[in-house]
Amino acid sequence: MARLALLSLLSLLWVGVTMSTAVDLQKRIIGGQTCGQNERQYHVKLSTDPTGSSLLCGGSLISKQWILTAAHCWKSNMYAVLGVHPGPGQVVKIIEPAVIFKEKNTNERTHDLMLLKLPSPTKVRPVRLPECKRQPTIGQKVQMAGFGATAVGRNNRRISGTSNTLQCADFELVDCQRLQNVLRNNNPQFYNKRQHQSWLCYQAPGVDTCPGDSGGGVVFQNRIYGVHSFTGDANFACSESAAFMNICHEPYYQWIKTTIASPKKCWWCG
């Protein structure tokens, strides 16, 4: 009898450990980790309230006065939290109109890239723009960061939430053909809005991005090469690759350089 009781106790303990492990794995399924103290100090948290507490999207300082993010993050009332990592952060209201990439001579179709100008230069060090002759290729790893949810529900179903710390995660560049096929078959309306844009795909086992991560910079060798745009599956995490805007696409790169360039001082201006 005592032996039976001992076996029952051990069985319960094993079940408890197994359930605990499953829950822990579920919490970690998105696969990120808190960014290092010296990493991603150029990351910007975009918010819709003056305190900067709400999470709208991410962004990256690419100069002392310009933030690069995703166009679908646009709101009429926006605030940028500078120095949010490692903190404490400074909240700045975006006053000037956002600059969104639009095609020329094609009914001005918009693409998912947006530049936001700060009222005055910041002392936060920006991320360097890409060396497009050395951009990452399929199979190489890039890094993404954001404050989006770090947990999923049953069967990896996405749930709402945010992280208290900036999370960094590594992804591998993959071919976009599968994601294009998935979108074309399952969400043709969304695909038709995106197919004319230049985006690249990334994925990693047990790693995925979440709502709130949009606009965050995709970095390779300490330079920004992309802006996170969308996930391949809006309902379940870690099932499809995600996509980011490829800022080495020549029209994008030239638009960025032209927009953020400082006005040239003329000799007759005094």
What does this entry look like structurally?
This is Peptidase S1 domain-containing protein. It is a single chain. Helix content is 20%, strand content 30%. By secondary structure, it is an alpha+beta fold. It has two domains: 96 residues, Trypsin-like serine proteases (Thrombin, subunit H); 117 residues, Thrombin, subunit H, CATH 2.40.10.10. Strand 5 and strand 6 form a beta hairpin. The chain is globular and about 45 Å long. It starts with a helix and ends in a 10-residue tail after the last helix. The N terminus is likely disordered.
Structural class: alpha+beta
What general outline do the C-alpha atoms trace?
Answer: globular
Figure out the total of helices: 4
What share of residues are in beta strands? 25-35%
